[in-house]
Amino acid sequence: xxxxxxxxxxxxxxxxxxxxxxxxxxxxxxxxxxxxxxxxxxxxxxxxxxxxxxxxxxxxxxxxxxxxxxxxxxxxxxxxxxxxxxxxxxxxxxxxxxxxxxxxxxxxxxxxxxxxxxxxxxxxxxxxxxxxxxxxxxxxxxxxxxxxxxxxxxxxxxxxxxxxxxxxxxxxxxxxxxxxxxxxxxxxxxxxxxxxxxxxxxxxxxxxxxxxxxxxxxxxxxxxxxxxxxxxxxxxxxxxxxxxxxxxxxxxxxxxxxxxxxxxxxxxxxxxx
Length: 273
Description:
Blueprint: E1 2-5, H1 18-32, E2 44-47, H2 52-65, E3 71-77, E4 86-88, E5 91-96, E6 99-103, H3 105-114, E7 119-120, H4 123-126, H5 129-132, H6 135-141, E8 146-152, H7 157-174, E9 178-183, E10 188-190, H8 192-207, H9 211-220, H10 228-240, E11 246-253, H11 255-258, E12 264-272
Parallel strand pairs: 1-5, 2-9, 3-8, 3-9, 4-7, 6-8
Antiparallel strand pairs: 2-12, 4-8, 5-6, 10-12, 11-12
Helix pairs in contact: 1-2, 3-7, 7-10, 8-9, 9-10
């Protein structure tokens, strides 16, 4: 099913005009001061997805660290509740003000063989911001990448495990370098103190490369980490592919931008290698 998805949140989460967006992303990378360092190969990254004003710098810092390969899976949470639990597009393009990002049809079809629960679906992706906002960073760094979009509703841990295995099998079958991008913000709309405490629990689980512990901690302590499912799946797949280390790149909150520390959202970025 050929998809041509138009940008849904350009002008809201990031600039709608090509040159303005290009300048903002370029400024992020210049501020990151990591752009010219040797890039490391990563199995996966976790990057935030709020408006660029709030989390763009934290996202840029993780993208600046890594070598971006030609093939990419992007996993995002489903904020809208629309569509199927595991929603995929397997053909077509997604547009941003920086141009068209092409879907890797072969990689998508291979994944669907290993993960029959994934269904072709437009509704889950149509208004979802958390996947779309990752694309301009990738477009800035890699002109010819192709990607597979997956938007995910809440899944049980066993379902995450099945999907993580399918993702690892797909990447092994591919025989080329593939990056997994898990899109997630951290705790939402509590005080700075409470958010930092809750975020730290999730951060420690990620740094331990312990997906069941991450999943349990988030649920046990009611950490409103919206991308818990993408992050859990990315960790499961990365461990199956031989991950040895997770590194925290940056952890901050919206309070550093707004000055309001009574209700903040946490943002963190990680490299898994």
